[in-house]
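Retro notes
What went well: the complex prediction finally ran end to end.
Inputs used:
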Amino acid sequence: MPAVTVVENILGANDRLAAENRKRLDAAGIYAVNIMASPGAGKTSVILQTIKGLGEDLRLGVIEGDTASVTIDSDKVLAAGMPAVQINTGGACHLDAVMIRSALDELPLDRLDLIIVENVGNLVCPAAFKLGTHANILIASIPEGDDKPYKYPGIYRGLDVLIINKMDLLPHVRFDREYFRRGVEALNPGLTTFALSCETGEGCGPWVEWIKHRVRGSHPDRRE
Amino acid sequence: MPAVTVVENILGANDRLAAENRKRLDAAGIYAVNIMASPGAGKTSVILQTIKGLGEDLRLGVIEGDTASVTIDSDKVLAAGMPAVQINTGGACHLDAVMIRSALDELPLDRLDLIIVENVGNLVCPAAFKLGTHANILIASIPEGDDKPYKYPGIYRGLDVLIINKMDLLPHVRFDREYFRRGVEALNPGLTTFALSCETGEGCGPWVEWIKHRVRGSHPDRRE
């Protein structure tokens, strides 16, 4: 079987499982997001700021993807008082729908409003594998540089939200915001974007409001 | 065929091609390094500092791996006066030995002493694919955080050299050098490490001396 066919079959099977995950989430009235980023862009920090911002308003569960059996990130989420499931991809560079299905089995779905999936730190393959979540979110970070939309167009094309993290480092690095913005706009016009710093907390409010609004939209009974 | 067998066959075929690339490099008297890193850690900046540091001493060629058909990095290398070949991986998240074989066909091997391969920005899959180069080099960067050796152990285990870049950002971010060092030491004891800043140029000298020494070691006629 040619390699291209094998890849198409794998992605097709993954898409079908992703659709099943979505049905299961919808049936449970859960809104779910897939957070992607380079290693070290601040995925876990954004999740911790989100937990803080949500307060008691919404019940959150977290699925943590890692390539090794370390629990650094899931321990932080558990310490923040949230149910977390760790997925060890066994060296694979992305999460897929099968892994999410197993993780959903371990979360108390009937007691959650929102699930945040933290994908493996990688700007390439996570973009190709649907998980069944409702929104794809990328965290870009200022010190990574302003050329990333040009170099990793695939991930930017499929986004619903872009978070630009580490805004506090802007005075200390070369980062042309206009060049970055033009790159994003060419791939994904009008993309919803939040610029923030998890270190100072500045700018986190609008992002937390966005996700609260989305979760309430998928739970008409919880709408304010 | 079970998926594991397919992966083993792919890696086995890659290893054989990598061995052929190595023979070809050795026959031409060329020392070659494989530079890996997260997106935005500074692979191209380190290459540009290396070009500057080498001056007229050694003849360098660069192979630039990118997932899309952008020439941002190879243009910078060409602008620095060096022969560069761009590899578009067509969306794949790593380089492999076949891609390097094609790139070697396009470089003037009889007129080079050193080849630097810039892998795709990714801490996972590049570690699994041998290219035929003589040394694996990882660029870690300060703003990525001090927990990366714990989260991406595979890539640290196979390294010959670690470069810690963006040392100028150390005063502006939380980075526990001792925690980072312990993580590296557990995976790769005694690993040769250079801490530097491509922004200020500080610390680049010892790295350039290391690579000069290595190249001369593989060219007895050029030894000082």
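What we learned: Chain A has eight helices and seven strands.
What to try next: split runs per interface for comparison.
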